[in-house]
């Protein structure tokens, strides 16, 4: 009898310890935000969050107000919903609220890469040199060269004759073209060995895109840690595919590898990162640089095709820039070459892209709480945050979709970010007060996306070419804009649940 009593005590003690570690006994302390743990130990609200983060967070805001803490898959995350308080979090010292700790954990979970200690400095230095200023000019030209290979070379023998309409899915076309062009611009070309043409580049980039789409479809499940056993095997296969094709050995055999990739490769090697680690990091760079640009380009073109007035305004602006630069299209003339300087003369297109980012880019901005912190909200209220927790903002819902800031927020308005005189509009208000940050699709503070300028140039260049080089139209002009895949909330650009047929042909 005594034996079984001892066994029972051990079992009960074990259960209590497990429940404690799962957070089942956590209670709200004095001055902490409202706490909502959910009903399921460890999981908490994980399922609701993974199904539709926007809907879940809206419900939590209505229940708890401007700040609340929720239990999600073993973690306690405090969400701040007041946009005036976002800057306080974004500018807080990394010794108190740190992005890199959360990013390192996420990167290891998805890419199996262990970040070196001085990783952030390496990224900032290389990005400043190669993705901004003079380096950005050269990389933008490389993107243009790659777009010409993908968009014009297959039709090179037909340009002098009558042009026939081609029909494809708009999402597939945009994602495929922008991804492959960016891949070639960054990771270089296969050696031609004296042969003309880019047949090998076309074949390999298509294969890379097809495998990347498989990885990308599984990404939300990796992000939310809800992977099925059979999916684990596929993820493993895809990782090994990319680790091979993006290996340092493969990069050495290529021509025209961008300075950004080459420089990071050298620094990783100097830090003693093995070749596998370098390959893993190249996959991170591929996903970070090309995982969203084709998706946003799709939405931008779809919004233009659904709004003839907007398409007309963008096309007229682009054609005006071409005339100004002496590069307008003529029958039988040379294909359009979009230069970096031309992309600095397109306020209407800039407004279109900003409106598209507002409507369709929805990241979660997360910081790890490194020590116990008192967070002072904009209204003066103070809340205690616990060391080991996370604090998070969701600007898509609480800023970009706020009807007080953006009237009729779900409607695409191509000139929303233009002043009456045609200049860029950057001033927006809530409760009669000007917002310091009116949009945060690229993140904010020290962790703001370092590649945002190149990414924006990629998308603008593609849209510029599509409206000037081609006639484009929807197969069914009355087709409805497809819903977004709500399972991708928090990751980046929202993808459609279905494609939209369109047709295109070279204009001259």
UniProtKB/TrEMBL annotation:
Heme binds at residue 449. Its cofactor is heme. GO terms for biological process: lipid metabolic process. Substrate binds at residues 109, 292, 390. Keywords: Endoplasmic reticulum, Heme, Iron, Lipid biosynthesis, Lipid metabolism, Membrane, Metal-binding, Transmembrane, Transmembrane helix. The keyword Heme applies. It is found in: Endoplasmic reticulum membrane. This is Cytochrome P450 family 8 subfamily B member 1. It comes from Sarcophilus harrisii. The lineage of its organism: Eukaryota, Metazoa, Chordata, Craniata, Vertebrata. The gene is LOC100918099.
